Amino acid sequence: MTPRTTYSASALGGHVDTPAPITGNTPGGDLRSDLHIVPGGHRRNPLAKKGLISALASLALLALALAIWELASRRLALPALLLPPPSAVAAALWKGMTSGYFRPHLLATTWNLALGLALGCGIGFLAGIALAESAALRRLLWPWVVVSQVIPKLALMPLFILWFGFGHTSLVVITALICFFPLLETTATCLRQVPPERLELFRMLGASRWQTLWQLKLPTGLPGVLAGLRVAVMLALVGAVVGEFIGASQGLGALVIAAQGSMDTPLMFAVLVLIAVLGVVAYQLTLWFEAALLRRHDLT
């Protein structure tokens, strides 16, 4: 048996360098500063800092735009009927909120939005799964789905009023119809874009069709489906407000028409501010729901 030879740095006539201590990028720096670790073990999040800076920049831009608007309205002596200054809009908004005048209209629009969104997205999601899982059903129904979407929804509102009457039912139906297609389209498309090798792996493992759908297709297509949900939320608010223009006596859309009829432009702008705030809140809730769902499926 050949004896094993042990080599050392001195026997080889070489020199072994001792690794240099890890430091920061700057001379005499500390690794903790590069990793954004503060004393006490807490890690600073640079993304949170960037988000705060972006939010402050957006607020500064809004303040600048409002200041220019206010100054232009006063210097040019624009009539309030055409373009009221932001101070007049703020006064109308404050008066409506403190007096409770906006409350029933805001609740009515929120209710129509929530019901229409739940109904339209639920049906669209289930229909998208059915069309993705059945090629024959997709070939049969897809042309009629497209036809139903190219018809302007506002043109259907008189029919809905005739069938369901004035009130919440017509508004919920028009809102659901508007947000139905984004969920159907994104669900049907994303569930059909699963990598073929993953599908083959599930077949080799003997997974059933239900197991493949629940454990592979839905988690894989979830980000795309949630993107469709974000679009549906914005379209649903548009549908609810536009529907209130025609078929409601309560709601923010109906309030816009009432302000127009009374030529109260500051009130009209105040209602538009409420619609914008409602849309931002609905969109932010959707983002939180999306983040929680993706985190649950380890897709963040």
CATH topology: MetI-like fold
CATH class: Mainly Alpha
CATH homolog superfamily: MetI-like
Please state how the strands of the largest beta sheet are arranged side by side. 1-2
> What is the terminal-to-terminal distance?
57 Å
The CATH architecture: Orthogonal Bundle
Structural class by helix and strand composition: mainly alpha
SSE order, one letter for each helix or strand: HEEHHHHHHHHHH
Helix content: over 70%
Task: Give the overall pLDDT as a whole number.
Answer: 81
Key traits:
300 residues; mainly alpha; MetI-like fold; two-stranded antiparallel sheet; 74% helix; disordered N terminus
Question: Would you spell out the secondary-structure blueprint of this structure?
Answer:
Blueprint: H1 31-34, E1 37-38, E2 42-43, H2 46-75, H3 86-99, H4 103-133, H5 135-150, H6 153-164, H7 168-191, H8 196-204, H9 209-247, H10 252-261, H11 265-296
Antiparallel strand pairs: 1-2
